[in-house]
Structures are given as C-alpha cells and as structure tokens.
C-alpha cells in the first residue's frame, strides 16, 4: 500500500514514467527514455496575473508588489488549441552491490506560438545507496515539495494554495526511507536569478513568489513523513531562502512551513495540506514583512478506465503585516473538477474545469488528449 498511494492518486504526474522504454539494460547499466505529447483546448476566459503567479514580495526598490483586485492584474485569453511535448531520460550504473550512479534529464517543449518553448524541468546526477539513501546534485524540486505533492493530482491546474518557488537549480538533495518513515533534505547554493518561470500546466507559466531582480544567496528545505499500512500518510516540511535585490540595497528572507495528510482506500483518495509563509525584507526605510497562508484539498475516485477528480485551493496574503492597518487579501480561491479516461496505458483524454471565486476572474475550462511513451 505504501508504495502505491501516490501512484494511484497522481496519474498525471506518473503516466510518462510508467511508460518509460528501456533502451539498454545489461551488466548493471540501464538507460530508458520517456515522454508525452498532448494537445489542449482552452476556452475563452480572463486571467489574473496576481492570482495565478502568486506574486507577493519586494520589488526592485524593496516595496511590496502584491496588489490584489486591481484591474491591471487581469488580461483576456482567447479560446485556442495549444500543443506541447515532454521528453526525458534516466540512467543507472551499478558501482557495487550497494551503490549505483544515477542521472536524469527532463524537458518541456511548447508549440510554436506558446511562451517558454524549451524548459528544463529535472537535470541531476548522483548516487543511489539503497538502504543508505539517495543523494543527487542539480535541478529538481526541493525537499519542501514532498509535502505538497499529495494534493498535486490534477493534470492541468491545482497546487496553488501555497508559496512554493518551484523546481530550483544548484541543489544538493539527500533522501531516505525506513519502513514507513521517509525524509528528505535539500540545500541550494547561490542563484543569481532567483525568479523562476515554473510551468503549472502545458505552457502556462507563473513567476516565483517574490518579484523581480532577486538573488537567492542560499536556501534549504526539509520534509518528513510516515505512511501507514492502512493507507494513511502524514507529512511536514519547512523551507528557507536568504534573498537580496540585484538592483538595490534591499535584502530579506523567505520562510514557509506546511503540514499535510493523505488517505487512499478502495479506489478513493483524499489529501489536504495547510501552509504559512513569511517574506521579510529590509530597505533604507526600515524592515517590513509580508505574510501568507493557504490550504489545498484534493480527492479522486478511480473505477476501471475512469478517474474523477475534485479539489479546492485557497491562498491569502497580508502586505506589511507589521503595520497597523494590515489585513489579509485573497490571492487564490478556486474549486477544481476533472474527469479523465484512459483508452490504454499510453493514451488518455481529460477535461478539467476551474471555478473562480475571485472577483473579475472568469471560470476556466480545458479539454485535452495526451499520448505517453
């Protein structure tokens, strides 16, 4: 049960890996490739830059950028069909009876008229020591994502009720499991361009959480959890980043913690996570702190070739929380519904609907066909 909970709950994330083609497997050396190609139709809608990119934090001058509810944050998106593909490979070579060398790369490739045509997702190399754990070096999700992953079950949307920065480069990550216990630690070295463009769907992008021209001096994260034999899993995590502006004297740090739980039984899956984040910044005029909090709920039911999904994401932020008139403002408030049908293990169709509760935002809708190899 422990090994299958997330594989059942997150078909969108594991579909490609499950269909990986083994190109070479001999004398302790394995090499495989995987990927997917898909086309989405997105209906006409308005979108909010502020609501979808999670931008809260200091600008070039150290002043807050988050201004929810302003008309400037909204833009029209015409109905269109968008194509995209993903390609990855992984390799493993046995060094002895315990240790192996491992490597992985994965890229997202968008269609001609889409933004961010060629994005690296995972690029790392390292060692797998079986019972001694795994250590990798490169670009991938930080340890903090382990707490968020159980609610990230939708093909298209979801997983926005948090302040996670997305995949990061320059990392050292150690992970291990013992019985039902699991743990992960990650440390990120200096990153001169801390703002990442992180894909949250097929060629739909969002900024990281703290504005423009920010350098991450270093960062670290930790996550721990326990999966019970009867289908219940518990998780907790913490992340920290030391930040400074590359165009001013502003500096600060970002902290986030999260608690989560998930449960699977008889084709049903339920997950939830609660998180809080603090963004502090010092300027020539003094120190300020922005606060944020949010939660995510997700559920799915799988029967034969059908998977039915439902979710809810909520996030709010408070600018200059140490000021007398500071108050929380909604950033994300959305309900998600989805249906997926697997024609085979390689070909599936899905539709997902996002119901917006933020003023001036339209509901969003997509239909997609996806082929995995």
From TrEMBL:
GO terms for molecular function: porin activity. Pfam families: Porin_4 (PF13609). GO terms for cellular component: cell outer membrane. It is found in: Cell outer membrane. Keywords: Membrane, Signal. One of its GO terms (biological process) is monoatomic ion transmembrane transport. Coiled coil: none annotated. Residues 7-354 form the Porin domain. Its main location: membrane. It is a multi-pass membrane protein. Belongs to the Gram-negative porin family. PANTHER family: OUTER MEMBRANE PORIN F-RELATED, PROTEIN YDDL-RELATED. This is Porin. It comes from Aeromonas lusitana.
């Amino acid at each position: 049960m422990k090994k299958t909970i997330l594989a059942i709950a997150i078909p969108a994330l594991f579909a490609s890996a499950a269909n990986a083609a083994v190109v070479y497997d001999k004398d302790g050396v394995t090499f495989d490739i995987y990927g997917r190609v898909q086309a989405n139709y997105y209906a006409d809608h308005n979108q909010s830059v502020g609501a979808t990119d999670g931008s809260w934090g200091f600008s070039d001058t150290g002043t807050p950028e988050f201004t929810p509810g302003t008309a400037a944050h909204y833009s029209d998106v015409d109905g269109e069909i968008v194509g995209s593909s993903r390609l990855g490979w992984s390799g493993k070579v046995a060094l002895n009876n315990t240790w192996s060398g491992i490597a992985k790369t994965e890229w997202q490739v968008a269609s001609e008229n889409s933004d961010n045509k060629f994005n690296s997702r995972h690029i790392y190399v390292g060692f797998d020591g079986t019972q001694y754990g795994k250590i990798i070096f490169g670009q991938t999700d930080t340890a903090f994502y382990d707490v968020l992953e159980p609610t990230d079950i939708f093909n298209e949307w979801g997983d926005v009720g948090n302040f996670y920065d997305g995949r990061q480069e320059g990392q050292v990550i150690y992970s291990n499991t013992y019985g039902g216990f699991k743990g992960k630690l990650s440390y990120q070295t200096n990153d001169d361009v801390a703002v990442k463009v992180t894909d949250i769907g097929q060629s739909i992008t969002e900024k990281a959480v703290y504005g423009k021209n920010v350098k991450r001096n270093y960062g670290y994260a930790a996550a721990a959890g326990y999966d019970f034999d009867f289908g219940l899993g518990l998780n907790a995590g913490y992340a920290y980043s030391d930040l400074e502006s590359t165009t001013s004297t502003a500096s600060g740090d970002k902290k986030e913690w999260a608690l989560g739980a998930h449960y699977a039984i008889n084709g049903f899956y339920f997950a939830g996570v609660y998180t809080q984040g603090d963004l502090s910044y010092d300027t020539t005029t003094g120190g300020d702190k922005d606060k944020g909090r949010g939660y995510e709920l997700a559920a799915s039911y799988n029967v034969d070739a059908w998977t039915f999904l439902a979710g809810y994401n909520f996030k709010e932020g408070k600018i200059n929380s140490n000021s007398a008139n500071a108050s929380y403002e909604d950033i994300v408030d959305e309900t998600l519904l989805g249906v997926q049908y697997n024609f085979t293990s390689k070909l599936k169709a899905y539709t997902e609907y996002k119901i917006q509760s933020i003023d001036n935002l339209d509901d969003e809708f997509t239909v997609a066909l996806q082929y995995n190899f």
